[in-house]
Amino acid sequence: MSSKLVVVTGASSGIGEATARRFGQAGAHVVLLARNAERLERTARDVRDAGGKATALAVDLQNRAETLGAAARISGDIGTPDLLVNNAGVGRWRPLVETGPDEAAAMIGVPYLAAFNLTRAFAPAMIERGSGGIAFVTSPASYLAWPNASAYIAARRAIAGFAESLQSELKPAGIFVTIVVLGAVETPYFENNPGSRENIPELGPRLAPVLTAEQAAEALFQGTEQKKRFVVKPAIYRALFVMNALFPKTVASQVRRAAKKAKKAGA
Hints:
267 residues, alpha/beta, 9 strands, oxidoreductase activity, KR_dom, NAD(P)-bd_dom_sf, oxidoreductase, Rossmann fold, Ketoreductase domain-containing protein
């Protein structure tokens, strides 16, 4: 990892910040992308202190021109990434009637279009080189559905479809694609998206414990090091995905019940 170049989006806080630090500890050169320049530079210092090399680039990933400009700068000044971690995401878990068109568009803008634009920018050089990796961080919403999060779930389904297609498309070129599905993670995400926490289906702390950002980052790190196709944490979600494929009505009923329970507890 000491000779690897890793690009991490949403790296100023939460999972992205922890992921940048984890790769920094392994000695990678980490390029950190996010909007908040001050927090981004703080994370970059932490990476350097941990023994890695860090470059911080403040960029609004909802802005295509800024995103492509940052990608061009990375390619021209530093090089082609060995690993791109598409982690940045926004979106409140709200009922359809409480979600405006602009908010829905923003949820498609990040994570999906941001991930598409960066992946599209770096993929040609990775293909020419014959190596590289792309990780997509998403949630169980990519494979399960529940009430009061329709726009969010749609955006996550877009990420999953894009990533799964790339697994087939890019494998012959020597590029691996890892989909990282994480349950609830204790990060500033819920502070930045008020009203979302109450709409998380309540599966219970034993079945689906809340992860720390560091646990999420470690799962991502190990998964990409081993070039896995899927990383699912906590493991209960893998079982739910299989059950959903086999018994969709039963799982849908149980998830609705869990969501109703969570809503009642939040109220």
